[in-house]
Amino acid sequence: YIIGAGGLQMKINDVTTNDTLIIASTANGIVQAYKSNQFLSDFSQWNSLPSFPIGNIEYGDIQQFGNYLSVAYNGSNVRDDSVYHFDGGVWQRETQIWVGDIGSLKMCQNKLIVSTQVDINVLASPNNSVDKIFDYGSGIQYVDAQDSYYDGSVFWIADALSGLIKANDNSSVSKISLVGPSSEENFSLKSYEDQLWVTTAQLSPSTGNNFYSISGCYRFQNESWTTFNKNANPNSLIDSSQFFDFTYVAIDPNLSLIHI
What we know:
It is built from no helices and 22 strands. It is an all-beta fold. The protein starts with 11 loop residues before the first strand and ends with a strand.
């Protein structure tokens, strides 16, 4: 639905629902419409909330939290974000969230999980924190959570500095290393039996000119990645010191030959 004033497009940051309403957090405040409305494609059927915690400005994630509507305000300065709860008449600011940029709000196990730059907070109700992860322990970067999932006992955290984190509590934290190739470069891929081949070319989108990438190519087989280039695999049949921008893989299934 295009719900901006006058039928103009408007940036939508998040959407939540309750028994009767669809509620959207936008670049111009918070708007809502009834689920039962058969004319939701008509922008005039969407109305702003009767009041806002700060003003008719841009808000971030939004969640239906029991009988409350909870919304993140993402301030323009460092560590000035806030969470607000609306009971249908009055907004109240969440007092249990430490000052920090908010990554996400998410409902898990009927609790509101607030992921921030300094902690992951579990709220059973507004201003009622029942659990919190604020320290990953030695050997792991400090908390900078972008998003989290909580199953009632274990936290799964997408962290900007440390990647994927599993935490039972602040004393039982582990960093999960995901299986992946040696570089994020990729151009094309081809599968053959139990193998996946990926090339790493970089070409200009406007002219098609080479970027002279020498990352070679990768093969995924038996749950592991092998990189084929001079630096990563000195015994490789592919010497990418003389060649660059590998674009495509072709496989001859009759002779089991890989052409790159």
